[in-house]
Write a structure and sequence with these properties.
Helices cover 41% and strands 25% of the residues. The chain has helices at 10-21, 36-46, 62-71, 87-96, 108-126, 134-145, 187-197, 202-211, 216-229, 254-261, and strands at 2-6, 29-33, 50-53, 77-82, 100-103, 149-153, 166-172, 179-186, 234-235, 240-241, 243-250, 268-275, 280-287.
Amino acid sequence: MKLLIVDDSKAMRAIVRRALNSFEHETFSIKKASSGKEALVIIGDWHPDIILSDWHMPGMSGLELISIIKRKDLPIKVGLVTTEKKPERLQQAIEAGAEFVLAKPFNHQALHEMILPLMNKKSEADNEFVLPGLARLQMAFKRSLSVEVNLASVPRQQVTSETLPCIIGLFEDSESKKTRAIAILNMKVACLMGGLKSKLKKNEIITMLNKGEINREALAGCKQVLSDSAIAFNIPQSKRCLNFKSLIIVDDELEKVESLLNKETEQRLDFSCEIANLQSGVITIVAN
């Protein structure tokens, strides 16, 4: 985690750094700035996660620095380390956007207790997952298949006897190994994707579509397309993508598919997928 110390006092910058170096929960990558102006340059180049700033500094105060960070909508948490102790001034700092105000002089433990909640917030933000938009998915499918792909939103899919068989693809967070997204492909789109990816002849793909069955080569191809598309599933704050975990054919477990399609979640995509001007199929993706 990257932390920037901003203080016009060289001695205070050293004191804060010593306190951070004694922190048991994490080793910080630390930079120091002697003014708000210098801090803004470092922020632009280095993108710190947390800033510990003095309040009163020549040229630009800690509150002014916070105001600029807020105005630019930067994902940085700022705490003030200051001699200010008046309640009304402390309230002013919190209203301006400071995460905390720590009075000088302070002991190491007091600083640690102030920083720890900010680290937890950063961890939660890093793990926030947002389903990709159709444009991003369409680009990923096109890149994988090297053919024209058109995606379009469709009404929320319901489970019927025609839902099966289908293909379920699981995407996981590479760090937590938790499944974060589930893709449910009807057999049409699975045959199209898999058949084209595995270079099957057009008549072989049409045969699969007519039978509603996917062969081994096409299944491997479908798996590769889903693996290639994992790049579209990202966790914005951490700048990492999900990994494709596994693929499952569901032939007769209608209740299992129904539980997924009826899953209560704010994040869900239902869309048609037309590939290479052949038949179109339907995909549903839900966040887990």
